User: What shape does this take?
Amino acid sequence: MRHMLDPLDFSVQEIDDLLALARDIESHPDEYSHVCNGKKLATLFYEPSTRTRLSFEAAMLNLGGNVLGFQSAASSSASKGESVADTIRVISCYADIAAIRHPKEGAPLVASKFSGIPVINAGDGGHQHPTQTLTDLMTIRSLSGRLENMTVGLCGDLKFGRTVHSLINALVRYPGIRFVLISPPELSIPEYVRQDVLKANNIEFREVGDLDQALPDLDILYMTRVQKERFFNEEDYIRLKDCYVLTNEKMKLAKKNMWILHPLPRVNEISVEVDSDPRAAYFKQVRYGMFVRMALIMTLLEVKKPC
Amino acid sequence: MLSISGLNEGIVLDHIREGKSLDIYYHLGLDKLDCQIAIIKNARSQKMGRKDIIKIEGNIIDKIDLDVLGYIDHNITVDIIRDDKVVEKRKVSLPKKITNVIKCKNPRCITSIEQGLPHVFYLADEKTETYRCQYCDEKYDGN
Assistant: This one.
């Protein structure tokens, strides 16, 4: 039995296979609409996340399966003090696969150790969010046609943004990847990403504070939101929340074939006027996220496409 | 010159960094053993200037967690004594994984709320002797 706790749990080849399956599902959704008949996905969401939860639920429903679960810790036995270990033991009796989101880092790993069913990490605090990374990889590959030899700009909250850390970890496995890390000094990438991931893998990268200066070089611009919930100090949040705003004016500096990605929800960091720019890919990204979750559920349940 | 009698059977933990012997005593759980133990602090050493030494009486090598020792100080040597002679010298090394030796201090880590979880750290970088929490990947800074 396999789990998906960290994007690196799958080899490059396995990720390629998963993305190929997701592309096939996208092209022929009807052929997959009953492959999970009779299977149940448990969505264990200890903190609110409408987007990710609905994406998982839509994915399972599109495969012909069913969904059960809870949407916040308050509506689960966690409010009575039940441990993650006990909850997953119980859920294992009801469902065939579980997606867990938890504010504490490492909670999905704990769940996997006590689970009788495959566990998918649907986000654990500021740590990992592997299905977002798979979504990002699928979006980049689908739109750019490749995952190698490109310059990827990551902009905004690079300190607490787990999607950024996971994406860097996943992309360094492909040849010819260069990063431009765009953030204010207070929100720059953690030292361990700089040292243990980028420098350790001899990845070309530069850190800049100015988005305008970086834009002309980029093949991908990955914008992030400054997340209020990651700050202990409200003043810091207010000071930093609007440090970058992507506008049509700024987009004139970008390549014609650059793609803008964002894990969403967006607040002010991408002006709504940019939505009509053909390079805005963040809503396409949502759709790709559902297909890649369908592929992941099938892979972990070892369900095959009918012949 | 302080004189401590030799061991007929037991182990000697030698080349302990000066002042670290009590840490090792408690980390290894030697306080729970029912045997004679000598802790020698500030012993003169040509190589180290000063060092600590722990002598433990009895056939207890299987009860000593060498991984813990390796984590605390991998320069320590372990001499196994039988019939008044050193029959084996063991070098300890940095363990790949340590369990319940140190605790994760990241308030966002699941270990901060989930009861009964072992505190597991893995060796993330041998050169810098960096250990990270298995659950949240937070670096252990030793303080």
Chain A has two domains: 7-128+287-301, 131-286. Chain A touches chain B through 17 residues (CB under 8 Å). The first strand of chain A starts at residue 40 and ends at 45. The CA atoms of residues 90 and 135 of chain A lie 30 Å apart.
